[in-house]
Each structure stands twice: as C-alpha cells, then as structure tokens.
Specification:
It contains five helices and two strands, in the order ββααααα. With 152 residues, the protein is mostly helical. It has a domain of 95 residues. It has a two-stranded antiparallel sheet. A hairpin with a 2-residue loop joins strand 1 and strand 2. Helix 3 runs antiparallel to helix 4.
Length: 152
Amino acid sequence: MAGENRNGAVELDFGDGARRFRLGMGELEELQEKTGVGPFRLVTRLLDGEWTVVEVRETLRLGLIGGGLEPLNALKLIRRYVVDRPDWVANAAIARLVVMAAIAGAPEEEPGKGGAPEAASEEPNFRTVASPSAPTTEQQPPAEWPSPTSGE
C-alpha cells in the first residue's frame, strides 16, 4: 500500500470483497497471547501447514481490527467467512500473508518511500560473537510473495 511504508498493512480479498489487514503491536501481542506462539513461529506454522483453527481465525480477526475495522464488524465477518463457512486453505493462506506483512512489510511497500526513516549510512553487522562466518553487508532481495489463491 503506497504511502504507508512499512506499517505492515496489506489489502487482500476476503469474504465479500477486498479488506485491509494489519497487525500492529497491540494486535501482535494479543495474537501471541491467544495462540501461544510469536509471529515468526506462527508464520512458519502457516507456511508448513501446521496451523490451528484458532491461529487462522485470530490472525484474520485481529488483522481486520488492525486494518481499521470496528471489532464487532470484524467479528461478524469472521463468523460469516471463517466459522460458518470455512475455507481453511484460502483462510490459512490469507492469514499467512497478514503475518508476513506484519513481520516484513507488505510486498508492494518500498523502503525509503512514504515517509519512512532513512537507513543509517553505515550498514549494521549482524554477525554474532559465536559465528564463524565473515560479516556481510549484502542485502538479500525479498522473496516473491505467494498469492492467497495460488495454493502454496
């Protein structure tokens, strides 16, 4: 979403139309409390197909709330499109994209655009004390984000 650089918002088709999802700090903390796992572990579970219905449902509900939907309206959508008529494959794919956007930013977000702070001129060194590997300053390009309908 242009202009909202690195805020983790993503617009995805869900239920009866396109919806804005975002997991801010408050939503991530509540999601962690409800699922018992942090965001990196959750995205791994969603990628590996090891998710639970609570993880998918709560990710979508909290993502809708973080995206600006009133909690009661978010709950109504979740009841309609997750609880009453579940499409677990599609819903898990959407949940995966929502968590990935929260962690790394939405795929269409560009670093350095939309008012985000500029990176420091000196590249950080992420080498740990126990690491035998040489420090690197090369940045890896982001992986392509799978579509929620691609079945990945």
